[in-house]
Each structure stands twice: as C-alpha cells, then as structure tokens.
User: What shape does this take?
Amino acid sequence: GSASGEKGMLALACVSGGRECVRMAERYIRKHYGQRMAQSKALIEVLAWIDHPLGIQGRWSIANGFRTKALQKAAREHVNAMAEREGWTLDQLADRTIPDCGFARATNEQGEPVGTEAKMILDYGGRKFTVTLNDDLQPVITNEEGKTLKNPPAAGKSDDAEQVKEAKKQYSEGKKMVKEGVKQQSLRMYEALCTQRAWPVEEWQRYLAEHPVMGRLCTRLVWSVFEDDKLVGCFRPLEDGSLTNEEDDEVTLNSGSTVRLAHTCNVPKKVGEAWSQHLQDYDVAPLFEQFGRETFELPKGQEEETQLNDFEGHMVRTFQIRSKANKLGYVRGEAYDGGGFSTYHKSFPSLSIKATIHFTGSYVPEEDMSAALISLTFSQLKKEETSEWDEILIPLGKVPPVLLSECYNDIKQIAEMGTGFDEKWQEKSWQY
Assistant: This one.
C-alpha cells in the first residue's frame, strides 16, 4: 500500500518550488550523496522540473563537476534533454538561462532595453528604493533623494506592511542569487577560456554583455575578436556599455565576427603585457588570470604521448594535494576496492574532455600522508558510466593549447607546495 515510488510530495515541489527549494535540494545532495544515493537522484529530478533559472544552473553544476559519476550522469541526462527540447547546444542553454537575480534595465515604449545600468526596484507602497550593483557586484540601495542605505529600511507610516515584507524578501533573494551566480559563471567562463569557446558577436552581446549581472562580470575580463579565424584585436567592455582596447581606443564589433576570451597563448606577448598594465591602472579585479601565467608548449616529439610526467616523483602531502586541487576546481576520483583513490579530475563538458591528475594515492577516509605526483592525462568524457581504468586517453597533441597550458600550470602549482623531486619517491609513498 505504499506510494513511496511515486514521490508525490516531490512532484508538488517541482511545480511550486523556487530558489529556496533549489538551495535545499543542492545542499542535501552535496551533503548526503555518499549515504543517500536514491534520495539524491530524486532531488536531481526535482531540480530538472523547477521552473527557475537556478534550478537549471544547479543541475548544470552537478552534471559538470560532481564527484559521484552516477549523479553526474543523472544530472547530465536532464540537461541534455532540455537542450534538445529547445534546439540549443549545452553552451547556448547555459547562456540563455543565467538568472537576472531580480535586476533589469529600463525599457522604452516598445519594450526594448535602454541604457546600461540594471536596477532592482523595492516598492514599499508609500516609498520606492533603487538597488544597483557596484564594481564588486555588491548591492547598493538608494532612496528617492539619492541617499545610500546599508540595508532596506523598516516600514514607515506611509508604507504598506505586506509590500515592505515582499520587497525585503526580494532584496534578500536577489543578493543571494548574485553571490551564487558570480561563483557559477566565473567557473563557466574559466572553462570557456580553457576551451577557447567562440561566441557569434550577436549572441555574446545579447546573452552576456547586455545581461544585468553577467554584463558586470564581462567588464572584468579581456576578450579577443576573430574574423575568418584570424585575431584582429582585443577589448574590454566598460560599465557604460562601450568597448575599449589596450590603448584606450574605442572598439566596434563587426557583424559576423566571433568573440573569445583572450589568453597569453593566443595573443602577442606585448599585447598581453599591455592588458596586464591596463587592468592594474584601472584597478580592475579579474575573475581569473588571463595574462602573465607561464605558458606551456608541448615539446616536439610528444604529440602522440598520452601523459605528462614532468612532475613524477615530486613529494606533496595528501591534504595539500586535496586543498589545492579543490581550489583549482578538481574533484576526487572514484574510490576503488580496498578503500583508496589516486586521482583528481576536472571536466570540460563543452569539449567532452576530462583532465586528470594522478598521484600515488590516499585512503578513504583520508589521512594526511606523504604522496608523490605521477602524471597529468586527458580523456574523453563518456555519456555512459565508465571506470577510470577503462577511459580512452587523448594524445597530448590533440588537446587545445590553452587547456593543456592551464592544466599543466595546475599540477605545477600542486608540485610547488611540496618538497620537490625525490628519487626514492616510490619507497616513501603509499601506492594504490
């Protein structure tokens, strides 16, 4: 007589839930995935049907960077299904579902956006307050006289109590959504840098530059313009909607051109140096480092090799490896029979590539112990669940240069935390 298989209460959450339901589901999945797999899979389906941008972004993040393959697969199936329904690529789906967090640009009589500044209006009934985002994407509240306030004020005599309550809720939700959105979109833009994703200029302007929140993030990045696959210059969007190059000249984008994120690997050295100086001069805090990071070029003769062993035998404590790898966006590899694991990996779904850092291994549950790095490899992401032992490795010569260079620098940073190479590394580390 049980109806637990239908999970009817969760069906109600799908049709009536919003941002808070998304947050609750994500928190549960990330906390209990190891002990409550069935419940976690059910909540992924809830995320798939909640009609809220954060629901889409939530399952997108699980599909692309979660440590449990079964949950990754479940989330990816829902993401793929939605993209197929809409006729979009996965990248286009992610662009078109970035939450506006309650901020919007003013519109004209035809309903078209005007101006560049996005605002949130808090309507108290008797008074109205305007919320904008500053350069750090923190909300700034101003009253009708233009005075800046730290927080939404208490209700006044002329205000409507219910409207005040709703306005404060609107502000609180918007503030949280901006914080979550900045984190998610920063990771997504970093992947776009590594994979050198190209946007048609019209799509870049509509879905990124003109987006009320994403547009502010775009001003903290340097972009390159390509025409017929040839680099024609770089630019940075400014807060007023105009575009500037490294010499402070205004830039105009031509229809038909494509836009990518600039990187040391694909711009002349002097141009990269000029942009580094530009960002410093204008006190711009980049979302991540695009210039100045040491680049890695694959030595001739290694194009058919499938692993980089430059840091083999470099000794690092396992907790140091975990801490740095997690900060760089890597997740722990699967644990095998015997209670150990020996990899950290980071996925790049737009290219269906996974980067994997191999080391001598650690126990589960983890202990802080001596370990040695072994190699960096790249493999093809599979739609079906596959053991790490069965993955097909990609020759290094076929890995995009920016992606190869960035991941090489990742393992290099981990190696630099340790004591360096030890010729007796095999004796001094437990090997899974």
